[in-house]
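request received
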Amino acid sequence: MKNKILDMTTLDKTLLKELDAYINLLDGDKGEHLIHVLHKAQELFGYLPQNLQLYVARKLDLSGARVNGVVTFYSFFNEEPVGKYKISVCMGTACFVKGADKVLERVESLTKTKKNEISEDGLFTIKDVRCIGACGLAPVMTVNDKVYGKVKPNDVDEIIRYYRGLEDENN
Amino acid sequence: MKITSYQELKKWQENCPKKTDYKINVLVCTGTSCLSSDAQTIVEMLESALESHNLQAEIRVIKTGCFGFCGQGPIIKIEPDDITYVQVKVEDVEEIVEKHILNNTTVKRLLYQEPNQTKSLEKSSGMQFYKKQMRVALRNCGEIDPENIEDYVVNDGYFALAKVLENYSSEAVIKIIKDSQLRGRGGGGFLTGLKWDLTKKVKGDEKYVICNADEGDPGAFMDRSILEGDPHSIIEAMIIAGYAIGANNGLVYIRAEYGLATNRLRKAITDAREYGLLGKDILGSGFDFDIEIKLGAGAFVCGEETALIRSMEGYRGEPDKKPPFPSESGFRGKPSNVNNVETFANIPVIILNGEAWFSKIGTKNSKGTKVFALAGQIRNIGLVEVPMGTTFNEIIYDIGGGHPEGKAIKAIQIGGPSGGVITKEYFNTQIDYDSLIDMGAMMGSGGMIIMDEDSDMVQIAKFYLDFTQDESCGKCTPCRIGTKRMYEILERLVNMEGKPEDLDRLRTLGEIIKNTSLCGLGQTAANPVLSTMKYFPEEYEAYAYRTKKTKYSIDPKKCVGCTKCARACPVECIEGKVREPHRINEAECIACGACYEACPVNAVIKP
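response:
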């Protein structure tokens, strides 16, 4: 294969098998299921590199352009790898008027990572997200599925320390 | 077990366990907000405590949907004693069990303390927060276990469906909804009955009922709460809609962020199928209807119905021009009826209580109730449902409890990124679809953000524009490029690099985008800017003429010279002798606000 980033042979075979099983269960117009298939693929692989997008396209009999168009349209899909801990700071209006921008700033400075990027050690990905609907707890940030409510910039230090601590324990 | 007639449903209802079968019901809110503050652990601890006292047969722990009182979560309500405990912590559970459940004494320290009152309230029904509310769409939220179909049936669930299938023709159903004058709760306020009628009249043997659960408006969470707290009501309403317009397929388009709502809806669909309330030959009527869930993937524009349909078909969620409306050519090019979650939640009650009951609630042209999500600088953050025609004052002060620190409330932003601001001169206006349009805002989904005197309206407008400009799908030029240019002008203004001419440019550009964009997102994108410019021109002028103060200062008349500010200042730019007025050196001030917080006599003036 000439174009390395489109080389589908480098994809994990076991995970692909699981993805195939999911796709084979779908009926009707396969293109209609594209968004669900991409959700599944991202759940399995963590993100959607271009060779995986091409794999999905071939499998569903769609053009690579159609799949890439969809992946880049929706903010839920990532084309780049994500960190082990995904930190999302809610930037909905309720959180914004309660100082979410200061929380995000603190997260960025503590992890030395800009939003939408992954930290150098691969631990954290920072995202600013749209309202997660927990406005009663504003300002809110989440780390993977754990929700932290009424976060003050100072609380961020402890939260980040906690996840760094988990890593040290694991090592 | 399949239920095959109205009679069988009635019999099933009689046999379902009811709250009255238990001595005490302990209701624990397990909505997203309360779950994220340990509600699940609280439930588990309650259950194991009851088990250890061998009380499971007498006392039931019910995991309910949202009570609406989200700012005070986690919340536990004890029935029939009518006691609500707020901000319950894991370590409080033992005390509740020991004192209240075993010894029937109220745990006073966990009761809600009304503002400006020295005594806490004993009974939940006396709470100001609930007094002026009327819960129609939220009727079951916080009352039943959303994952238990029997709880829904006990509260007359699926009886509207049974009534429709046994007694009404599809025309009769449409007439009821038309006569109730229910209008769409998702934003525009189009008459629901008329929409159904339009879809019914289009010829075609394949039609679709679509539920729009893509609640993207930041600060609004009523649809999520309904799906989390009462998913069966949406299923029941969609089947009724399908029967009325002649559709056998339903689709719910839901945001991928709403995991809990999706799971509960999925469970509800499975249960409804098992009992023959969904699928083939519903309730023995010969009518078939089934529902499929379609996940979104994070795009605000997909709340627009044509974009939503494109997304369900597996494409980029770009809107199409209308006409043709989805009622003629929607999902897969077939006639499709799109309604929002809250609209559907009203349908079963209208059928059961009658169109006359419903149309008595509200104002002349806006009937029924509306759910608002209160957030921002307000004491009682949460979901409130009030009859149309309630005033802003009633919502902010009676229900919302006013500002948490008693500051003045300057404005309310309603309708999210498509809406506008309402200023305090209008707080006595009755809220309905038309009065909001007259004020330059719109109902939208019903998000209400309360802003106090410290809020900077230009910054708020910039925040919303950042949102829409980021979410613009890029299909049409005015929205794609226009909102970007508007944003750049605003950015220039707040960086004190703007010019007075910028204000005219901003206004003209806003009007053009409004008039020429393809879909609702672009057509309303400029609203937050235009409306704040209309009501707060002085704030824009302060930036444009660069007269805006950015540093703190001290009012020498108020200052008592206590030195607290000087000690709090991190850059040591405040000087003055003890008991003499202090002064801030503006050149060095970093506008951190520490002095403002420290001053005991409010002598520090905010920029």
